[in-house]
Amino acid sequence: MRPAVVADSSVFIYGKALEGEVITVPGVEEELLDIRSRMRLQISGARIEPPSRDALARARAGAEMTGDAAVLSEVDLELLAKALELSARLATDDYALQNAALHLGIEVETIAMPRIRKILKRTGRCQGCGRHFEGDDCPVCGTPRRKRKGGL
């Protein structure tokens, strides 16, 4: 049996050939706006199916742990969930999606951009007092958080 790969829209936009059974989620098909990328999706023979609710919940929890949930779209979370569900590798150039995937132990294959060098945890930083915290507002002064990257 060929290993499965879950494909982000960049696979079809750039026309990268992937080894293994190609699977994607319905939202990716909706993201493909031009005729060429839509044709590449059709020609690839990719299966298009949504992830299970359980896998989607696990993907959301993983993205929350890394702080990537704030920047990942619903389609990104579905791709992450599908890769978790099938124990498949994930083909994407999206750095936040790569970060969450690697944190969850999912193998990542890039399309046109280099792979991220290290797994990051996005933390909140207060714009007022500069303290790092988790959540949306600083527990000390109440100022909204500013996104900041930091190593795990």
Offer a few descriptive terms.
6 helices; alpha/beta; 2 domains; 5-stranded parallel β-sheet; 152 residues
Would you kindly provide a written description of the structure presented here, covering whatever features stand out?
The chain is α/β, with parallel strands linked by helices and 152 residues long. The protein has two domains: 4-109, Rossmann fold (3-Layer(aba) Sandwich); 120-151. It is 38% helix and 20% strand. The chain contains six helices and eight strands. It has helices spanning 9-14, 26-31, 35-44, 53-66, 74-86, 95-103; strands at residues 4-7, 21-24, 47-48, 89-91, 108-109, 120-126, 132-133, 145-151. A five-stranded parallel β-sheet has the order 3-2-1-4-5. Strand 6 and strand 7 (132-133) form a beta hairpin. The mean pLDDT is 87.
In brief, what are we looking at here?
The N and C termini lie far apart (35 Å).
Fourth-level CATH superfamily of the largest domain: 5'-nuclease
**Shape estimate:** elongated
Q: Per DSSP, what share of the residues sits in E-state strands of 2 or more residues?
A: 15-25%
CATH class division of the largest domain: Alpha Beta
- For the secondary structure, the number of strands is 8
Give the CATH topology of the largest domain: Rossmann fold
Roughly how many Å apart are the termini? Answer: 35 Å
How are the strands of the largest sheet arranged? 3-2-1-4-5
What is the residue-mean pLDDT, rounded to a whole number?
A: 87
Outline the biggest β-sheet: 5 strands, parallel
**CATH architecture descriptor name of the largest domain:** 3-Layer(aba) Sandwich
Structural class: alpha/beta
H and E string: EHEHHEHHEHEEEE
The overall number of domains is 2
| Rounded Rg | 17 Å
Uncertain stretches of 5 or more adjacent residues: none
